[in-house]
Amino acid sequence: RIASITKIMTAIIAIESGKLQENVKLSNNAIRAEGSSIYLKPGEEILLEDLVYGLMLRSGNDAAVAIAEHVGGSVEGFVFLMNEKAEQLGMKNTHFANPHGLDNREDHYSSAYDMAILTRYAMENETYRTIAGTKVHYAPNPDSKWDRKWTNKNRLLTGLYKYSTGGKTGYTKRAKRTLVSTAEKEG
Questions:
Q1: Is 20 exposed, middle or buried (0-12, 13-18, 19+ CB in 10 A)?
Q2: 93-131 in b/e burial notation, b at 16+ Cβ within 10 A?
Q3: pLDDT digit string (tens) for 128-182?
Q4: How do beta strands 164-172 and 176-183 pair?
Q5: How high is the pLDDT of residue 82?
Q6: What is the C-alpha separation between 161 and 22, in angstroms, rounded?
Q7: How far is it between the farthest Cα atoms of the chain?
Q8: pTM to 2 decimal places
Q9: What phi and psi values does residue 177 have, to the nearest 5 degrees?
């Protein structure tokens, strides 16, 4: 069980889709996603790029479902893309069943080795590197004159380890705490 480190795959597929500047209209399905949220509203339109920031910094499950629906046509279609990418990368001990990592399926799992393969691949993408290494992101809020402010939940990045370049945290009751972390020191 891998919990929200699943979102590394969700993010890289969204980034590689070439749709980051497209507006995404939020469905009721996305809004109803359980667990951590970036508090999106039904019918709201938001840039896919902002959804990826909300996904990676705040671990928004609502963002994960919205990304899946927009990029994959449906959650099921997106999960197909996730498993296809995992196979292409040689992630032999991985199967994705959702875009967020919640424990709603038994067939959602990976290994530390496979997550290292995925993260190494994702970190080769400049946009992914920027998003994963962002400490604070501001996104428009249609219900307020103030922008949303999302602070990264990864405490290694935000202050505990000065060489941290990014990563993703996760937690579910069954998986417990999960972490993928990247760092660089003197090259």
A1: middle
A2: ebebbbbbbbbeeeebbbeeebbebbbebbbeeebbeeb
A3: 999 999 999 999 998 888 999 999 999 999 999 999 999 999 999 999 999 999 9
A4: antiparallel
A5: 98
A6: 34
A7: 47
A8: 0.96
A9: -85, 135
Q: Where are the alpha helices (DSSP H) in 19-60?
A: 28-31, 48-58
Q: Among all residues, which ones are annotated catalytic? A: 4, 7, 59
- Token pair belonging to 102: 């919640």
Within 8 A by CB and 6+ apart from 166, the residues are 123, 129, 132, 133, 154, 157, 181, 182
CB 23 within 8 A of CB 80: no
Amino acid (1-letter code) at residue 93: N
Closest CA to 59 of 120, 10, 92, 110: 10
Strand partners, 179: 169
For residues 112 and 90, give the distance between their C-alpha atoms in angstroms, rounded to a whole number: 13
Contact 64/52 with Cβ under 8 angstroms?
no
Task: Provide the mean pLDDT of the chain.
Answer: 96
Nearest 10 degrees: CA dihedral of 102, 107, 113, 114?
-90
Task: Classify residue 160 by its DSSP letter.
Answer: I
CA 47 and chain centroid, separation:
15
Task: Round to whole Å and give the CA distance between 54 and 68.
Answer: 14
